[in-house]
Amino acid sequence: MPRAKESISLDSEIHRTSCICLEKRGMIRSSTSTAMPLSLQMFIAIFVMGAFLRSRALLTKNHAERLATFVFSVSLPATILVSLDPVALAPTVWKIPVAACLITLPMVVCAWLLAHFIQLPRQTQGGFLLATGSINSVYFAFPVILATFGNEGLTQAVLFDLGQTTLTLTVLYALAVWHGAQAVTPKSAVLRFLSSPPLWALTCILTVKVSGHHLPPWLLEILSPLHFTTTPLASLVLGLSISFAAIRRTAWLATLGVMMRMGGGLLLGLGAIRCLDLTGLERAVVILVAAMPAAVSSVILAAETDLDEELVASIVALSVCLGVVILPWLPELATLLME
């Protein structure tokens, strides 16, 4: 009898332990499939508010451009410095900028072939190439990746943008000049690239980390308040960039551009991770950033080089709206991509 009682007691303990393990697994599963983070919810709310303010003419394109300049020149460099300071760089860090090249260059070639096939006018063709080839890192990818993966994810996104920005200010900018009506010298393109505040911030923090040091605490205290403004201001810039009138006038071609930018980017991202054998967080970030909307900066470049600015703005607006729509499913998608 004592042995029977001991056996029953042992069986009960095993059953209780199994139940606890199952409950823990359930908790882990539920935690990975919960609603999107509060930061992403705020991102959507501010985006909608910005689009509403633009539609009511309470704020205009000029306000969006001023905010974009502040984010690009002040907030984003602070975010790069603060977020990358505590993160250790992996030996495979070089693969992420290369992944950007493997995604953007084939995208430009495909867009060029398609533009020729449907016989787009020269300036419209240039706008189509520019919008489909540029990725919205600063105002969409960075805040979304930061909210989803934290500082380590943002590190990968910034490194990806290093390759993407290099291509944007060289290959894409040259194509824009070639298709545009304004004469822009190569010297001005080089100066634009070398004077980029995010590039200087990235160069600075990479130099500090390679040397085995960290930013001083007093500097981090100064930069942190600026860093916290990046996500809300970026989402407001996106909302203020939406022009529904332009979308209606270029709907079919803009839709085709969005399909190439996001759908084609996703496929090229899958190809890039296979070529470079990326796994885990690097894999997830590359795929997600590859499928991001078109860059707001492409509208600025289109205006500067006298391309079809209306088409570029429509592709940006439509792709941003689509990106915002799929944000609620992003946490679950991110978890699947890392497995």
Q: Would you write up a description of this structure?
A:
The protein has 339 residues and is mainly alpha-helical. The chain has one domain (37-334): Na+/H+ antiporter like fold (Up-down Bundle). It is built from 16 helices and no strands. The chain has helices at 2-32, 38-55, 61-84, 95-117, 122-133, 137-179, 186-194, 197-210, 217-227, 230-240, 244-249, 251-276, 280-290, 297-304, 309-326, 330-338. α2 (38-55) packs across α6 and α2 (38-55) runs parallel beside α10 (230-240). The model is unreliable at 1-34 (pLDDT under 50).
What fraction strand?
Answer: under 5%
Count of discrete domains: 1
SSE sequence, one letter per element: HHHHHHHHHHHHHHHH
Give the CATH topology: Na+/H+ antiporter like fold
User: Which range best describes the helical content: under 10%, 10-25%, 25-40%, 40-55%, 55-70% or over 70%?
Assistant: over 70%
Mean pLDDT: 81
> Which radius of gyration do the C-alpha atoms yield?
23 Å
